[in-house]
């Protein structure tokens, strides 16, 4: 199991009776339709439909909890405040950076490790992927756990008062199967899971359709696709709710002999015409071979399409593949 600090991430609480309605103006997801203690991955968009940030949002009884990326948090805060200033409704934003910290524990056995610091009798077998709960951890009140993560494995993001972060981390590390790790290891695992890294695979010029994240526009019977209502929706959706056509799409890439790093150029099979760029690439620790993701022309984005990569000045044969590269093992509640 891997234990990582996520202290750079921004935690926000949204209050007020119109909090869900406001969030549906700034993110693409079905926030009103979330059950209490359930969450979703969503995208913050701009006026052109580009992705300002990706975020995990969890609905609680009296507030909505949001986590956004550390590298974008100041821009996110400015954007949210600008939208609040134009919103006619009851909603307020509570910024938790100084008062709360985040840890992530991921991998087989994560539930057993977390269970050791939860109150006696807490049943994690009934806690599904992408659900959250307020709780006491190691006798400390005001904590929160969300069953989610960034490695494709079962795991939890754990929020606790800042003054207790060190003691809770130390308690978790007492488990001999828990290993402290940095963001480099998480980056390799998230790529194996086919997950995006903001600022590399996503940015303000890329929209959800291009990023193959249109599934985040959910809701019963495709409500969010039909209704739109979020910033830039007209650039992403047709009036009937169908997706606008795009000229490029995010794909998985395998078959090259050497790792293709970010910025490596992608060409057609003949190696004559440039068709895109790699946005993330590494040597997979699980598969023991190079993997990458990037954007290619839509006409060449189908699985099995032969392509070429220019790696350190030399062309290498590769192939478009589906993602995740390594099968995800998110937790499902037994039926």
How would you describe this protein?
17% of the residues lie in helices and 33% in strands. It has 7 helices and 17 strands. It has helices spanning 19-26, 73-86, 110-115, 165-173, 183-192, 223-227, 233-236, and strands at 2-5, 10-15, 39-45, 51-59, 64-68, 92-95, 100-106, 132-137, 140-146, 155-161, 179-180, 248-254, 265-268, 274-284, 289-297, 306-311, 314-321. The two termini are 26 Å apart.
Give a brief rundown of this model:
The chain is an alpha+beta fold and 335 residues long. Helix content is 17%, strand content 33%. It has helices at 19-26, 73-86, 110-115, 165-173, 183-192, 223-227, 233-236; strands at residues 2-5, 10-15, 39-45, 51-59, 64-68, 92-95, 100-106, 132-137, 140-146, 155-161, 179-180, 248-254, 265-268, 274-284, 289-297, 306-311, 314-321.
């Amino acid at each position: 199991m891997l234990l990582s600090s996520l202290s750079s991430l921004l935690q926000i609480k949204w209050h007020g009776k119109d909090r869900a309605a406001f969030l549906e103006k700034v993110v693409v997801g079905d926030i009103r339709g979330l059950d209490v203690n359930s969450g979703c991955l969503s995208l913050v968009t701009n006026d052109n439909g580009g992705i300002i940030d990706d975020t995990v949002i969890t609905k609680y009884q009296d507030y909505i909890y949001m986590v956004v990326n550390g590298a974008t948090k100041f821009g996110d805060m400015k954007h949210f405040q600008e939208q609040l200033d134009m919103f006619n409704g009851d909603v307020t934003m509570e910024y938790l950076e100084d008062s709360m910290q985040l840890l992530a524990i991921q991998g087989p056995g994560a539930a057993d490790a977390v269970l050791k610091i939860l109150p006696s009798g807490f049943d994690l077998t009934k806690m599904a992927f992408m659900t959250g709960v307020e709780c006491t951890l190691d006798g400390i009140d005001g904590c929160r756990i969300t069953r989610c993560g960034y490695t494709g494995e079962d795991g939890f993001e754990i929020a606790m008062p800042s003054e207790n972060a060190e003691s809770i981390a130390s308690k978790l590390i007492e488990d001999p199967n828990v290993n402290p790790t940095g963001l480099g290891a998480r980056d390799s695992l998230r790529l194996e899971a086919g997950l995006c890294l903001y600022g590399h695979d996503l940015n303000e010029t890329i929209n959800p359709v291009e990023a193959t994240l249109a599934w985040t526009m959910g809701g019963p019977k495709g409500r969010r696709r039909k209704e739109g209502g979020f910033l830039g929706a007209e650039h992403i959706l047709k009036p009937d709710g169908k997706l606008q056509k795009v000229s490029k799409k995010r794909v998985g890439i395998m078959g090259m002999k050497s790792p293709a790093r970010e910025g490596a150029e992608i060409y057609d099979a003949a190696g004559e015409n440039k068709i895109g760029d790699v946005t993330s690439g590494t040597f997979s620790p699980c598969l023991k071979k190079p993997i990458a993701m990037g954007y290619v022309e839509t006409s060449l984005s189908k699985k099995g399409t032969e392509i070429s990569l220019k790696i350190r000045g030399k062309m290498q044969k590769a192939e478009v593949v589906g993602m995740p590269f390594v099968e995800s093992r998110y937790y499902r509640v037994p039926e």
